[in-house]
Amino acid sequence: MAPTSSSSTLSVSAPPPPSPNPLLFHLRRPLIAAAAALAALLLLAAAYAPWRVDLPPKAALLACPRFYSFDLVREYHHDPDAFTQGLLYGGNDTLFESTGLYHRSSVRKVELPTGKVLAHHQMDGDMFGEGLTLLGDRLFQVTWLKNDGFIYDRHNFTKRESFTHKMRDGWGLATDGKILFGSDGSSKLYQLDPKSLEVMKMVTVKYQDNEVPNLNELEYIDGEVWANVWQTDCIARISPDDGLVVSWIFLHELRQNLWNSGNMNIDVLNGIAWDEENHRLFVTGKLWPKLYEIKLRPVDGPADGSVEKLCPKASFYR
Ligand SMILES: *[C@@H]1O[C@H](CO)[C@@H](O)[C@H](O)[C@H]1NC(C)=O
Ligand SMILES: *[C@@H]1O[C@H](CO)[C@@H](O)[C@H](O)[C@H]1NC(C)=O
């Protein structure tokens, strides 16, 4: 429906008549002048009232925006040799990080302000480190192309146990403080029992009826599971109960800026860490020399669009 002239929808009561008492009138003059100005403004608004008719329904105003870009808050040093596969905030301005590649895989504790590695565990050469999460004092880590995982004491990486799981292999891990969420590079999001590592539930992650493949590093944030989508600059925000993607975060500018400043050997965006206490969001990538604190900013996006169109594969493998 086209907007119609609708000054009739807004009725404005006329200002009160000036008091006949000259003294009182004098005293009340500023008040009356203000009221008259307000009335004039309201009349003006009424004259331009069509916008009032076209206000979206309240539900639309309250609905969560579906697309986000970001504002950069701060950037930090990140080890350019860290092939980041798991990242989380460990409190007190520290991060825990798991890195991949054969003979280069590790678990680390990193000082956020400097990027300095405070503690480091080198994994066996045949292990390719993947997702990492912290539940209580225990760091859970999965490995690529294997069903083997490790549990480290956050205070002492030499204290560790191993486990096996039934996901295809290990890509991402996250926790809500009770259970573990896992990904294996498919479109599946798993819920794992942290004691038995059994799969308790599995959902297929979808956006507008299309499966979202290549789910990688995970982070649990405010009831959602956020997932890096491998080889793209996108993070999918997933409702973990039904697997639906509720919104997308576009971060191509981060990689583009690194490229523009000559960092041609970087790999994909990967690694999301959330400082719940201070509401700080950190992201980085594999072999990225920087780690970024960002704030999300809602942006417009296409009403329809396949995942491939929204999040095209970044051309790393030229
Ligand atoms: C926090 O980190 C600082 C600097 O690394 C350290 O001196 C301090 O003991 C840490 N505090 C806690 C509670 O871990
Ligand atoms: C770390 O754990 C190992 C194995 O339990 C133990 O031998 C070592 O003393 C611990 N190191 C520290 C610094 O607590």
TrEMBL record:
MF (Gene Ontology): glutaminyl-peptide cyclotransferase activity
Name the UniProt record assigns to this protein: Glutamine cyclotransferase
PANTHER family, alphabetized: GLUTAMINYL-PEPTIDE CYCLOTRANSFERASE
Superkingdom, taxonomy of origin: Eukaryota
Pfam families: Glu_cyclase_2
Source organism: Digitaria exilis
Keywords: Membrane, Transmembrane, Transmembrane helix
Bilayer-crossing regions: 31-51
